[in-house]
Design goal:
Layout lengths: L1 H9 L10 E6 L6 E6 L3 E4 L3 E5 L5 E9 L4 H16 L1 E15 L2 E12 L3 E13 L2 E10 L3 H13 L2 E2 L2
Antiparallel strand pairs: 1-2, 2-10, 3-4, 4-5, 5-9, 6-7, 7-8, 8-9
Length: 167
């Protein structure tokens, strides 16, 4: 998992030129950042952000904006609750790993866990947070089934590498 997390968060993949992708903007009303989500992922506005589900439903990523003053513990607690309530994914909080790195001109905090899904079994879960200015933080949550992680993490890495400021 550590190697996969490093690959995902390092943004080592570039977007393939032959694959179509949808540009998502956050926040929707007055964009601060954009990201490219592959067309073969089902991306939709979920009110408080954009959620994209992989083909076959074996992975999910969610982009949200939050106030930069919101405590990290509050973000983590809300993420764990939402994964359980909306995606039936249970986070094993004892497996939490924290890392941070500099990329795209900013600091990215990365928190990862192991977990489980009733439907998909063992899962890999991550929460990536960065300040984007204007009093906002970008929060990216993802989970993928462990057995499908190689393909899904490659797609997620491309999406993370595509995050760009608008202004």
């Amino acid at each position: 998992m550590k190697a996969a997390l490093i690959l995902v968060t390092a943004g080592l993949w570039s977007l393939p030129s032959s694959a179509a992708a949808e540009t998502v903007e956050l926040p929707k009303a007055d964009a601060i950042v954009t990201a490219m989500v592959p067309d073969y992922w089902d991306a939709r506005d979920v009110g408080d952000g954009i959620q994209a589900v992989s083909p076959g439903g074996v992975g999910m990523m969610c982009f949200q904006m939050t106030d930069e003053r919101r405590p990290m513990e509050s973000i983590i607690d809300a993420t764990i609750r939402k994964l359980a309530d909306s995606n039936d994914v249970i986070v094993d909080t004892l497996t939490q790993e924290n890392k941070s790195h500099e990329e795209l001109g900013g600091k990215w905090d990365v928190i990862s866990w192991k977990g489980s899904s009733r439907e998909w079994g063992a899962t890999m879960i991550g929460l990536i947070v960065t300040d984007v200015g204007y009093g906002k933080r970008l929060v990216i949550t993802y989970w993928v089934s462990k057995k499908d992680s190689e393909r899904s993490l490659k797609s997620l890495g491309k999406v993370f590498a595509s995050v760009r400021p608008v202004r």
